[in-house]
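Hello Y.,

Per our agreement to keep a running log of every chain we model this quarter, I'm adding this entry. I've kept the format consistent with earlier entries: sequence first, then predicted structure.
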Amino acid sequence: MAAFPWHARSRNYVSESDMCKLESVPVDFGDYHPLKPITVTESKTKKMSRKGSTSSTSSSSSSSMMDPLSSVLDGTDPLSLFAAAADPVITTATMDNTRKKRDKDDGPAVGSDFEPWSSKRGEILARYTTTEKLSIVSGTSTGSAVSEKVRTRLEELDDLEEGSQKELLNLTQQDYMNRIEELNQSLKDAWSSDQKVKALKIVIQCSKLLSDTTVIQFYPSKFVLITDILDTFGKLVYERILSMCMDNRVSLSDNFSPESVNDTAKETCLNWFFKIASIRELIPRFYVEAAILKCNKFLSKMGISECLPRLTSMIRGIGDPLVAVYARAYLCRVGMEVAPQLKESLNKNFFDFLLTFKQIHGDTVQNQLIVQCVEIPLYLTLYSPAIDWILQCIAYRAPEVICNDFCSSCSLLNHNYEHLFSRDEF
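Predicted structure for the entry above:
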């Protein structure tokens, strides 16, 4: 049987593809929705003959076919219903109300349910007393690589009167308290007489006293007395800069923005921060800057939130754990006054304290307690006012889960206390 040769048939793939395509239906973009019930157009195409004859194509449009997923929802889906119910128009008034609510939530909002520091002040002074002699050593150490003008002004801070140190030695507790009150009044008098450098010198002198733990059982009361002066200084500086922002005898509103502060007030505010940054010793530099923390509002909207973490880290450079925990308490106090919504720095201060709590086992603390004849149980009670305040700040309007976390941390702290009490050498 003779074989017939096969020859490839020439084909036009483009035309064949066009004939096999479904009929396209124009879709209005505005009506398109991915979850909208689908309308399907069915095209029926006859098979082409093998002989290559051109076959006719007939198409018929069927009625709208129900999508199986949409049929379960009776043609409607939850997202479409939600979108239809939502108001697509966002008015300017709505945006303003949202912004006002956010500003209100972000602003200082310490209410009457928060126990103020003033209510604890008297209790601390009455509890932590001493019969030993106290001293107030006058002396400052300032200066750094600053401009000549600033250096000249700061050199005045070291120009202390000769013989003043002897007059402030061997003071009784009452004499000490009287002297601190005199320094507080001297600060106000120097400020009212426009002696700003003298006022800064007094604040630096007082801040340095917080590094002295020679009469350690009196330290909590000393902290209360010294921070009273720091509070006075911070208030005076803030009110001074605020008064420079008055325009036509109209002061700024409580929720003013840095953009509404004039250049003169900003320059004065920066000048204060530059002077404080020139203080060489860590403790007075920390306390004086923390005292005017609120003044950051004049410079930047994020100034306080940026300054708090830096000051928190600065406390890590304080070697004495008792001095450090009271520095943390003061930072939490001024932080709650100006930005109570910034909880992160409060939490960080507490956990930093837990990490450094083991320092009480060190030779420095133990030798200090031996010299002063202070037993470890008494020493540990000195931490109570500071820790109590820090925890109060953290727990204020905090979620329950946060409070539970800190309760667990406090349980760990109590365990360390019990461990110390059970040691044979005590």
